[in-house]
Specification:
The chain has 412 residues and is an alpha/beta fold. The chain has 14 helices and twelve strands. The protein folds into two domains: 159 residues, Aspartate Aminotransferase, domain 1 (Alpha-Beta Complex), CATH 3.90.1150.10; 227 residues, Aspartate Aminotransferase, domain 2 (3-Layer(aba) Sandwich), CATH 3.40.640. The longest helix is centred in the first third of the chain and has 21 residues. The two termini are 27 Å apart. The site of pyridoxal-5'-phosphate has 13 residues, from helix 4.
Length: 412
């Protein structure tokens, strides 16, 4: 689906994507021609305000909500923080928060910080070995003083898509607001916010071929939150600061294109992901992390694998030298030496979590990218394993068989 050929294979689209030419084109006039501040009352300001209104309407259509329910922010990180801190500010008597153990750091670190400071009690729900939240554990965790439940919709590391209908229905019954972090799902799976039992939802643009540094928060009508910093009346008084008009225009355009092309892109990405998985799972001692690839329970294009007996960082570096760009764990933790909390939460041992690599594909990837990634990864794994003293010989056959069975089972 791409007419651009690269010397490298970019398989890190879960971290960030290339801005599409159509998106860039839509943004450019708001840097150079209609560059006014949308709050200004002259012609250039009004033109910027009009673009902002149109972008909000367009994004609302892509998301299945009303334009008045969207607030633009700088990122999904900000949206997540604003949702939870904003709710907490208007509900000081609610002293309990529920999250999953596989949240992005922007939810997880905030929640842990509050718990550490004694501001509230934190419950982390159970997930199964593929990262699905157990609805029973949610039912049991809810309390009269629960402020909110915050769940990652599509997990950025292992691709697990949560059953938000079921989890949301449980929250509705208890009259507790549900916030979802949908940074990875917008544009990848159909979303209709008015049909989903959610009260707040966070998004950003750079996962779907839009620009970096722009996000949005959906706040269902009648849900009250308080702004987290003081300033002007922008964004319905919820998020002060002059809006980043070019980025917002690009965000809306990227979402429109992603929704428009979703079926075609999903088929393309699924096909490539399957080929990549087939090639890489043929390497001995490889394990798939998360739900079956190309199933409705996993983000399209997400492939997270553990290469036993080697460090993910060593594979990543080796692939980088050969022009194959991937992640080990999530972007924010890929420079840290602690194992991914997502992988350990689904039961991986520390050494297995350390040996994990995430490949994330997008509409712009090609068969050539996949072929290159398979060749380079196979060679890297062989080379690195040849330097490893402790591959247990007697386990080789058995584990290889186990890995193959495991993989087959997941893809039946
Ligand atoms: C699920 C999820 N939530 C939040 C974020 C943070 O997004 P941003 O980089 O826009 O702050 C990311 C991006 O890494 C993500 O994947």
């Amino acid at each position: 689906m791409s007419d651009t050929t690269h010397e490298y294979a970019y398989l890190d689209n879960g971290d960030g994507t290339q801005v599409l030419p159509e998106v860039l084109e839509a943004m450019l006039p708001y840097f150079t021609e209609s560059y006014g501040n949308p709050a200004s009352l002259h012609q250039l300001g009004l033109a910027a305000e009009e673009a902002l209104d149109e972008a909000r309407e367009s994004l609302a259509t892509s998301l299945g909500c009303a334009a008045s329910e969207l607030v633009f922010t700088s990122s999904a990180t900000e949206s997540n923080n604003l949702a939870l801190a904003g709710l907490r500010a208007v509900n000081p008597d609610k002293k309990h928060l529920i999250i999953s153990p596989i949240e992005h750091s922007s939810v997880r670190n905030l929640a842990k910080h509050w718990a550490k400071k004694g501001f509230l009690e934190l419950t982390e729900l159970e997930v199964d070995d593929e990262g699905r939240v157990n609805p029973e554990s949610l039912k049991q965790a809810l309390r009269p003083d629960t402020l909110a439940v915050s769940i990652i919709h599509g997990n950025n590391e292992i691709g697990t898509i949560q059953d938000i209908e079921t989890l949301g229905a449980i929250c509705r019954e208890a009259e507790v607001p549900l916030h979802i972090d949908a940074a990875q799902t917008l544009g990848k799976i159909p979303l209709n916010l008015h049909e989903l039992p959610v009260d707040l939802a966070s998004f950003n643009a750079h996962k779907l071929h839009g620009p970096k540094g722009v996000g949005a928060l959906y706040i269902r009508k009648r849900v009250k939150i308080r702004r987290q910093f003081e300033g002007g009346p922008q964004e319905g008084n919820v998020r002060p600061g002059t809006e980043n008009v070019p980025a917002i225009v690009g965000f809306a355009k990227a979402a429109e294109i992603a929704v428009r092309d979703m079926d075609k892109v999903t088929a393309h990405v699924n096909d490539l992901t399957q080929k990549l998985a087939d090639g890489l799972m043929a390497i001995p001692h490889v394990r798939l992390n998360g739900p079956a690839i190309n199933s409705s329970e996993r983000l399209p294009g997400n492939l997270n694998l553990t290469f036993k007996y080697i460090e993910g960082e060593a594979i990543l570096m080796s692939l980088n030298y050969q022009g194959v760009y991937v992640s080990s764990g999530s972007a924010c933790s890929s420079r840290a030496l602690t194992p991914s909390h997502v992988l350990t939460s689904i039961g991986l041992l520390h050494e297995e979590a350390h040996g994990s690599i995430r490949f994330t594909l997008s509409r712009l990837n090609t068969e050539a990218d996949v072929t290159k990634a398979i060749e380079v990864t196979k060679a890297a794994v062989e080379r690195l394993r040849a330097m490893t003293a402790f591959i247990p010989e007697e386990h080789s056959e058995r584990e290889s068989e186990h890995a193959t069975t495991f993989y087959k089972k997941k893809n039946d």
